[in-house]
Fold these 2 entries.
Entry 1:
Amino acid sequence: MLSVLVFAAVLIWIDTTILGIALERIADPRTGLGATPGQLQWAVGSYALLFATALFAAGALGDRYGHRTILVLGLVCFGGASIWAAWAGDATGLILARGLMGVGGAMMMPTSMAIIGATFPPERRAGAIAAWSASSGVGVALGPLLGGVLVDHFWWGSVFLVNLPVVAIALIGIASVVPNPKLARKRRPDPIGLLLSTAGLAALAYGLIEAGQDTDWTRWPVWGPVVLGLALLVLFTVFEWRSSEPSFDPRLFRNGRFSAGNVALAALFFAITGQMFYGNFYLQGARGMSALDTGLAFLPGALGVAIGSGLGARLAKRHGVGLVSGGGLLVVAAAFLANLWFDVDTPLVWFCAIGLVSGTAMGMTIAPTVAAVIAVLPLDRMGAGSAVNNTVRQVGSVLGIALLGTVLATTYRDRIEPALRDLPPAARDAAAPSAEHTRAVADALHRPDLATRANDAFIAAMHVTAATAALVAFLGAVLLLLAFRAAGRRRHGDGADAGREQQAQAGGEQRQPQPDRERRDVVEAVPLGNRGEAGGDQR
């Protein structure tokens, strides 16, 4: 059963990275869809947006109708959306298909966690969740490599067809060995919360992306969606606060460490998503690398995350979450600043080396921080807390691709505008949206100098975007260091304080007395498994 669930989970993580390798081709009007930067942002962001907002509904549906049932529906949805995305005739179709894939992924993740939680006894549950969570490292590493091979040998849509054999094998395995647990006490669906959160995030992301296409903030299509999105999110928070059974419980944020840890993780995923977006265009577009070589260049970063996760969990037990996770996030910010020295002829070994350092620091930040923000809560709130944690991270990804993508597009257009002034109006309009469009026009007009100007303008835009990401990561690091600084001060206290501190360093200070055995199972599971994604307080 565990093997089947691990095999199915690889889909979720492959699809978070594999599309990035194909973005350059999709943006090219000659080999792809000629997608604009805004459309590419939506192609990436729609997956994270629907994934984030559908998590709670998927957990509640699993409680009511059986988690295997919802898992099967999620796989079928994922497979059907993959076929749609592969043969999408335009950017709009690709965006819609990606959003549907996000819904399928949201139905798969919490139900898999619930099945593991209901099947394995407490003494084996942590190991099972750790094994299931290892699929994330496998998927993140495989995504760019598989994408590179497929894009180099087939067309861009082939990156989605790799999902189909995985879906077919997983469905056979699920039908054979996976049980269908339900909760005795069924949670009520939260359609109003789902509608408000989805609409609010979508409107906010739309406004930010629209700002990248039209920098005139005085126009209502730019500021209107942003204001509407913020208003809907405030209304969603108020509604959930007053609900007796909220799907997203904002009361949890009254705990200072829970709030700080989640905000810091959102800042990290904000920066990561933006870097993945511009990194692919830097390697394939500005440097002219193949899709496979690009995937290999990202591999050190993926390996670094796997190394850093285990290393960070061990170091946090000895030195505290604030020092390890906060320090790791500072290193991430420094790695983003190192991007300011990247140019079209920078030795690739530096890109890979910085990727390895940055990935290791990311792993050292994520694992201890997730454990800490969950373990500060009572046991009966850990499930809800972990579900909130995963949603906040996905929201960070949505805002990262929206805001940093907008910074990239806006800065590029400002830098390339002088080079386009001498072009005919039609050519100027065709070349303006992105570096890919500019290179296509330069090729059609036999203007290699224009292609060089496009590369220079993109590099300058990438530097501004990287600096923005570094600032956000730095602020997240400062927040972590401040929130967990008290733990380091108490390390020199009396024996009772030292005992409590040792536990706090592993995952947050105890708020209420809880059985040691059960808390140890949860804390060991959370860094890798995020068991609360089951959508409820599964035990």
Note: Residues 487-539 have pLDDT under 50 and may be disordered.
Entry 2:
Amino acid sequence: MTAGPTSLQPSLLADGPALHEVEFVVVDLETTGGSPHADRMTEIGAVRVRGGEVVGELGTLVNPGRAIPPGITVLTGITDAMVVAAPPEEEVVPTFLEFARGAVIVAHNARFDVGFLRAACDRMGLTWPDPVVVDTVALARRVVSKDEAPNHKLGSLARLFRADVVPDHRALTDARATVDVLHGLLGRLASLGVTHLADLRTAADPVPDAVRRKSTLADALPSAPGVYQFLDASGRILYVGTATNLRTRVRSYFTAAEKRRRMAEMVRIADRVHPIVTATALEASVRELRLIAQHTPPYNARSRSPAREPWIRLTDEAFPRPSIVRTAPLDARGVLGPFRSRALATAALEAATGAFGLRTCTDRLPARPRPGASACVLAELGRCAAPCVGAGEPPDYAERVAAYEAFCAGDATQVLELVSARLRRLTAEQRYEEAALERDRCHALLRGAARAQRLASAAAPELLAARPAPTAPGAWEVVCVRHGRLAGSAVAPGVGDVLGTAHALRLVAEDVPAPDRWAGAALAEETEIVSRWLDQPGVRMLDVTGTGPALPRLGAERALVDLAAVLGVTVESDVLGAPPHQAPEQAPDGEPEDAPGAA
């Protein structure tokens, strides 16, 4: 995407150098008119400055290839005779681009000057480099009041900041005056916390001074991955977040880049920021999740009550039925979930009982029907086998239970076929509300099954894995996972160090006891985060105790994708992450030469 004249180059923002380290090129143009496409430039002036010192200047008239309007001559004093021997824009613009290479472009009313430069590049087939652009008009509107200057024109600001030169509508003179105006504006902005290039991106935006001044809370933070905690004066944790660059991420909270109203409220209360540097981004994500669950910060909206998420499991009786429960023992049958809410669990329960014809009554039924027992209306509708009256013989009901358990274990074929057929029939009959209800129930059921299957896939007693570090060429991230819980992570400097790092990590990693319930060793969301990390391209399994991570080929994640195709929609990103693991039908063809072997 091409950035506009006042946009910022992402790579420079990520570095976020201090303003005294940044090189600025202040530019001014004189032109034959106001249209960058219909008119042409007649003069260009540019001054390169760093740390308040001028390091270079560029100034030249430009032959516009057309007559200069009399009104422009009166304004600038530039005549046709003056530009007849001047170089054309085809020579001047490449020279300017070289002069300004790697610098931040500054102009007074930057849209005008940058617009002409971009248009000239387009005419010549040159690529505009999309540098950081700063508009001194926009900055002046932020910090110069009407009591100080009648307007924000260059002449008014030059007088206010006692510029060494007086603007006279000649390019180099106006550029020199703009340099002094820029320095004056930056001096004022510094008191508001605008001290780095990243701050300058939103310096002209209406950020309250009380918020912008808090940017000093980020000054001592490291430029490393990890977790950050906003705390108030009493030490209470207000908010927990994760970042690949702690310093850059936290600084963004004090600029207009942060649009969330509650975050502005939180920043006003915050007294300090506590960083926790982590070896890997995966460890940062897991630590963030654990801290939110432990402290329930008031300004975190997600993952605050993960332990209260409901499950579905089969009851332990002669004619079992799916039931919503608070926890699921490790030996429980027909487990789904956990679900994000009780409402989703209820919808999934309705979908499961309807798809497999399982009973919904809550009475504990004996193996033989009670004398005088009567069936409910669901039996009359054909939606229940009615084992309470013996209408469904035990073998028949057992087959229904077995089909449900097969679905939970990883075969969603029957459910997908049944729901797809029902949705097509309801849609053909224009029963759209019923079709929407059926769709939502099926989604809830498949989501619950997908989460349970993913949790089961990462439940090995111990797993060591590695992948190339995305931010450190040549390095490898190494993780140790025990019973679905991240026990430790480290970074190996090179591929030859991976196995040694894995061995050392195994010795110091957290000791995780075997759980006695589903997702008992870790929060379900943590195990999912770890599982999706294992799904990433380039991950290599170093050693696995027990069954390695593998999702069923016909499982719920695959069914969600297929159902989305039936509906003609895209499956939600919070349901599926990376493509699911699949049990291989044959051994892989081979590993890259630099992939570490088994530990």
Note: The chain is about 40% helix and 15% strand.
